[in-house]
Known about the structure:
Layout: E1 2-9, H1 12-27, E2 31-37, H2 40-44, E3 48-51, H3 60-65, H4 68-84, E4 89-93, H5 96-108, E5 113-116, H6 129-135, E6 138-141, H7 146-153, E7 157-159, H8 163-169, H9 175-181, E8 186-189, H10 194-209, E9 217-221, H11 227-237, E10 241-245, H12 248-254, E11 257-261, H13 264-272, E12 276-281, H14 284-290, H15 300-305, E13 312-315, H16 321-332, H17 334-351, H18 357-371
Parallel strand pairs: 1-2, 1-4, 2-3, 4-5, 5-6, 6-7, 8-9, 8-11, 9-10, 11-12, 12-13
Amino acid sequence: MVTRVFLAAGEPSGVHIAATLMRTLKARGGEYRFAGLGGKAMCDEGLRQIDDPSKTATMWLWGNLKRIGSHRRTLGACIADWNRERPDVVVTVDYQAFHLYVGTRARELGIPVVHMVGSQFWARRYHTLEPIRRAYSHVLLIHEFEKRFYDEAGIEATFIGHPLFERLSARTLDPQLEQRITGRRLGILPGSRRAEINACLPVMLDAARALTPKPRVAVSVAHPDARAFVEAQVEQSGLDAEIVPYGSGEILRTCAAALITSGSASMEAAYYGCPCVVVYRISPASYFFAKPHIVCPIAQPNLVADKPIVPEFLLWRRDASRVAQALQHLLDDPAARDAQQDAFQTIRDRLLRGRPPSERAADVVLRYAAEQA
């Protein structure tokens, strides 16, 4: 019997999570037919691609308002595909601004929806509980402490662990690339979305340029269309910089410290034990609307550790002064670096315990698919 799974991943990190799940499902045996939204890694695992929203993924209020038109077109393509070939289960990954609509429409058609990387509704002063209940049959959580909030809200949820650590444990780093980066003191990881690279990289380079002495830096490029922008910004900065496409792991294994755009890369720093400062820059409208409602850290290691182990800065303008001060302290003070590395070791020990997240996720996905047989 064929199990039809429709997957939707709206950003690069979600694409990798979905691809790992697809690989795990195939390893269970049986025949699968995958369709949906996602990028190359998912296509490599057999996805029949309808669209790839991860190419233009964005965050926060203003970025999502600008994408309303494209979201509506993509949602229409999903519904048309479900009418042609009804899936047994829909799996959405993160990117809730869009996936709430995908999930709601799927459930209106009687299709169960499993959502990976649960909404952090508990982290805001305003909650989105009713949309979550409508959209998702079951939510898969990456943080253990989240389970209590979902249970109290009466939303079906399962803690599976952090998918990033599963992917990184299977990654092989390039020793030649590490050798090339050796001697670069500061790593800069400006993000995987084009919009956040455009917003954050100039601030990051300003902060690096303010350090004494000016460090030799390595800059990761994780978006294929951002290379020219990154090169131009680095040249304008006057820094001694090595540009490294898709080299985040090698940078974090080699550099003394890193400056990172908020997101999964901060957890990657925890995995590799690289001390870091986290920054995120958003539009003034998003900042003044959302900032008063945020009641949790923006750096994932701080969230997991439930204490401030990584300096973090949410910015709305190009002002690198506080970022530079925090970075200077981290580079100059061995005790500060050691404290972060000790905290990172605790996080690694906790998140690498037990069954891999994709195995736990596959259990839930197959249970819902079987109910449709």
